[in-house]
Amino acid sequence: MHQFLPYAWFGGKCVPFAEATLSVATHALHYGTGAFGGMRALPNPSDAAEILLFRADRHVRRLSQSARLLLTELPEQTIHHAIDSFLKANKPSCPVYLRPFVYTSDLGIAPRLHSIETDFLIYGLELGDYLSPEGVSCRISSWTRQEDRSLPLRGKISGAYITSSLAKTEAVKSGFDEALLLNSRGKVSEASGMNLFIVRDGALITPGVDQDILEGITRASVIELAKAMGIEVIERGVDKSELFVADEVFLSGTAAKVTPVRRVETTELPTSRPVMERIRERLTAITEGRDPAYDHWVSRVRIDG
User: What is the enclosing helix (H) or strand (E) of 207?
Assistant: First the structure.
């Protein structure tokens, strides 16, 4: 059972979560004409009256760009203001996940993006580990990742997640924790809601942006950190067979953070993951505000005012 935060940002203000309701005729509900973001926020371990947000500027920029893919404008400053107000109203005392959502709020029935009303909301819930930090099992999905020529994959468009939903349920119902999707060219793309990394001979390899991936913010952070730590990073197509012979395989995402893959299909993977562990430890320190070199990646919101 999800523990939702008591207030939502809805209709341009904070209201009790139970009052943030939509009509059954809402356009986005029927056509997937929305775009969402996901952000983790946690109380500063050394100052509970301060909330830490990891790379809020990047998350806000991506959501604003996603809105443009829906042919609507959602200025970055509008999102920042709403997030600050939302956190001050809720005053979270434990790690939480924020879900901002821009959507077509019109009650019309025609599938369109022109001459239509849009709106923006935020809700949140308490969230610990989305996936087991000890590792997950993955299967290759029978579903194929969409192509950017058929869907704008540079944004988190809600309608696109039907494929992720089908792949995730297929994986769980067949005894696995997570799904890995191939793209239309047969290359590994991503998991149901996470990006993928493998390690081979000390090099960190990840599908490039030309492999129909979501341009993940945690992914970009892992790449930047790895390079700064002297780890070779290669962005290229990844073949399915490479998953079975890799030295390490792990997933990254806002909800998943950095999660190791312990098994792909019937192949058990190595339990020693030195590259992933170095990156995960550093990323954890950054998100908790304990790494001065990357303090610019952390936004701080006071909730005691």
Answer: none
Q: Is 135 left (phi over 0), alpha (psi -120 to 50) or beta?
A: left
Active-site annotation holds for 156: yes
**Alpha-carbon distance 267 to 176, whole Å?**
12
Burial class (CB in 10 A: 0-12, 13-18, 19+), 294: buried
Per DSSP, 209 falls in state G
Q: Tens of pLDDT along 61-110? A: 999 999 999 999 999 999 999 999 999 999 999 999 999 999 999 998 99
Cα–chain-centroid distance for residue 40?
9
Could you say which of 88, 91, 156, 187 is catalytic? 156
Task: Pick left, alpha or beta for residue 118 (phi over 0 → left; psi -120 to 50 → alpha; otherwise beta).
Answer: beta
Question: What integer pLDDT is reported at residue 2 of this predicted model?
Answer: 86
Beta pairing class for 136-144 and 178-182 = parallel
Domains and CATH numbers, the chain: 7-126 (3.30.470.10), 136-272 (3.20.10.10)
- Tokens coding 23: 């009509």
Token pair 């599938």 is found at 111
Backbone angles phi, psi at 58, to 5 degrees: -70, -40
CA distance 133 to 272: 14
Binned at pLDDT 50, 70 and 90, residue 130 comes out as confident
Q: How do residues 206-231 score in pLDDT, each as one tens digit? A: 999 999 999 999 999 999 999 999 99
| Tokens encoding 29 | 């509900």
Q: What is the distance between the alpha carbons of residues 300 and 305, in angstroms, rounded to a whole number?
A: 13
Residue type, 175: G
CA distances from 236 to 32, 33, 211 (A): 31, 31, 8
Answering whether pTM is above 0.85, one says: yes
Rounded to 5 degrees, what are φ and ψ at 82? -65, -40
